[in-house]
Amino acid sequence: MKPATLHERALSRRRRLWLLAWFLVGLIALTLLDRTLFHTLYVGDGDNLKHLKNRDWYQLFRQLGYLPTWLIVAAAMALAGTPRVRRVGVLTALGAALGGAAAELAKIVLSRQRPINNGVDDGAYVWGPPFELLYDKHAGNHGLASSHAGVAFGALCLLTLAFPRAAPLFIALALACGLSRMLAGAHFATDVFVAAAMSYALSALLFGRFGPQRDWRGRPQP
Q1: Any residues with CB less than 8 A from the CB of 69 and at least 6 apart, and which?
Q2: Nearest to residue 161, comparing CAs of 207, 124, 127?
Q3: Among 6, 8, 73, 174, whose Cα sits 20 to 30 Å from the Cα of 14?
């Protein structure tokens, strides 16, 4: 593989800037819409929430944000697939794990409460001091970012990069996982959006560095 030319590096930098710009636009737009989306999508507490959680489709989409789901998928790909599929399986599990971990770290740094049970009002932004989870055992219920969305987007973005023809399906499943958390009132749209952006960035780095086009040392395959 030839070294990247100056033009190629400039295009790469331009692409990163465009992605950053779109992230900021999306974040601003969803921040303005967060409260409205919460009151529109949240099914409410009590029987409505219990009914939602008993629905099979809800549990299906929610479990896409459960790390063991992707460990099982990775194990199946490792046992039954070609060398390329086995590698993609390993990277999918890593993408899910890193996406979830990034969301948990964001909760520690950003310290914003979930939309419900926040001590103030449903749908309100309630912020705490950064890192309060590290020293205040009563500070829980942080929601920014969504770790379920982080896991789901981490795995499904990796699969999108590996199998681009199936991208619409993978993206729809990731969005459905995020939507399931919003229906339950567990997260704002921005919680899901930030998790998705972090997970995409991590999965793209993983795939670019260790995808089937490279060996495990990150060097291009002959």
Answers
A1: 63
A2: 207
A3: 174
